[in-house]
Amino acid sequence: MRTVRQLLDTKSAEIIAIGPDAPVYDAIRLMGERGVGALLVMEGPKLVGILSERDYARKIVLKGRSSRDTPIRDIMTADVKTVAPGDSTEHCMQLVTDSRIRHLPVLEGQQVIGVLSIGDLVKAVIEMQRQDIDQLQRYIAS
Fold it and tell me: What is the pTM of this model?
């Protein structure tokens, strides 16, 4: 099973974040520009929350709030599930499944070093399965 660190090594190291006092509109614009479904909410180097498209849909759109007048801190998820570099892909998959989330910030100590999406995890699982199938086919053929 691959580790979180191994998955991060295949991705860009860039952290896309926004401050908690910025308007939700700025976050949605940034998500669109960067092609991501969630942003880390940070005060300096400290992770204080995460804001996803799901948060926007449920807490702004469905409640008739203004994304230009609402600060991110009012709708962000403050209880962020995180993982560490040594955690396994299997642990991450279990966490996103059980928590019904799509993004996992990766912390080394208190420092954010990356983010894994459910897409990253699925890709890793598919690659592992492909390797297992290749090994079994070679074994059968020999």
Answer: 0.87
